[in-house]
């Protein structure tokens, strides 16, 4: 098997060969090689500095990228704040009070704008930051296909509809991924991002005390692990305590997520479903990744690239936002004008 070597953060990171850079011919890892050659080093610097004091940030950035791509594609719509014309995805059920890293992406954008004004999209910054976050946590690196443009809209309703939940059954997870053109291997590989980061107790309280309204814990939880989680998440607690996804190496992107599933130590029900659903085709994939970290890394890279290509805007579609949280003034004025015209039409048709 051929391999590519990517020098990132003074380390040589091997990416397995045979992987397409992009399913979209308009995306290219060298897209900014002439217009903003400093891009990668700027993203690395800002994200690296933040991660030294906030070890959770790389996991939060990868999650932010995921929550962007699953709603009208990887177009930075998740970054848009609520306005008179924008119904922010940040207020959707899966996102409210849980998205992190928005300010970090803004800080990266500010630094990039200083070096290369009006060149790099927020969608590309977020995608590139997700890739660098993998490297910062000991995971694989890859040449990120670039050339995305930013959306002019957000879709809160679609965020509520498309984003999988922590209590989803395997059939629901497969359906959510299939709707984005992602297969079962992608589901298992991308779930491996839960080898880093934390989750709030409120997402697992039902598993610990009242699974499926039985008044008992989830039987798929290891009993010792269950007791440990109950100590961290008291039954009548506020639900705001945070628990490591991986109790062994919580800040390292490795294959331990899959080893944990094998011994009933998946934190979320949706994660444990990958291994504990009787007869599921995901079991053999989990076993494969648990047995060989290189196999997991290869598939994680492939699936991250594939996810990063969902519904991208290129060419003249969308725009290059000056600020990631707001559409450009020209677009905002045009959007407001259209809204006013539509309002007039509605009034005249009554």
Q: Helices and strands in order, then pairings?
A:
Blueprint: E1 3-8, E2 11-16, H1 39-53, H2 57-69, H3 102-115, H4 122-136, H5 156-162, H6 170-178, H7 184-191, E3 198-200, H8 205-209, H9 223-232, E4 242-244, H10 256-262, H11 269-276, H12 282-291, H13 293-308, H14 329-348
Antiparallel strand pairs: 1-2, 3-4
Domains, number: 2
Rg from alpha-carbon coordinates: 21 Å
Termini, distance in Å? 67 Å
Most strands sheet = 2 strands, antiparallel
Cofactor: heme b; Ca(2+)
Binding site for heme b: 194
Site (Transition state stabilizer): 63
Family: Belongs to the peroxidase family. Classical plant (class III) peroxidase subfamily.
Keywords:
350 residues, mainly alpha, Peroxidase, domain 2, globular, disordered N terminus, disordered C terminus, peroxidase, hydrogen peroxide, oxidoreductase, lactoperoxidase activity, heme
What can you tell me about this protein's structure?
This protein is mainly alpha-helical. The chain folds into two domains: 26-163 and 308-336, Peroxidase, domain 1; 170-304, Orthogonal Bundle (Peroxidase, domain 2). It is 45% helix and 5% strand. The chain is built from 14 helices and four strands. The chain has helices spanning 39-53, 57-69, 102-115, 122-136, 156-162, 170-178, 184-191, 205-209, 223-232, 256-262, 269-276, 282-291, 293-308, 329-348; strands at 3-8, 11-16, 198-200, 242-244. A two-stranded antiparallel ribbon has the order 1-2. Strand 1 (3-8) and strand 2 (11-16) form a beta hairpin. Helix 7 packs across helix 12 (282-291). The N and C termini lie far apart (67 Å). Residues 1-23 and 336-350 have low confidence and may be disordered. It comes from Trifolium subterraneum (Subterranean clover).
